[in-house]
Amino acid sequence: MTKINGYWYNHDEIVEALQKKGYTIIREENEPDKRGSVIVDWYAIKGDEKPNVLNELKSVALKEFHKKPPLI
Question: Which one of 40, 60, 61, 62 is CB 3.0 to 4.6 Å from 44, fit for a cystine?
């Protein structure tokens, strides 16, 4: 679950919203560690970008959908 603008969204809602904005969602699995746990990383990329730390799913969602309130 990710909190954006004070509301909680699950993984599927975020993936669907980013896909509507033209992002391609990539799932990358790492090798199992000593205990057999597999770490899964999710990326949202546009165009010919490569998966990296700057375009992880959660950070892209926060950048795309987080709106600051106007200053009065």
Answer: 60
**What pLDDT digit, counting tens, does each position of 3-32 carry?**
888 889 999 999 999 999 999 999 998 888
Degrees (nearest 5) of the Cα angle 63, 65, 69?
A: 100
8 Å CB contact between 23 and 14: no
Q: Indicate the DSSP class of residue 54.
A: G
Instruction: Spell out the residues 6+ positions from residue 14 whose beta carbon is closer than 8 angstroms to its own.
Output: 2, 57, 58, 61
* Residue 24 near residue 7, CB atoms below 8 Å: no
Q: What is the pTM of this model?
A: 0.78
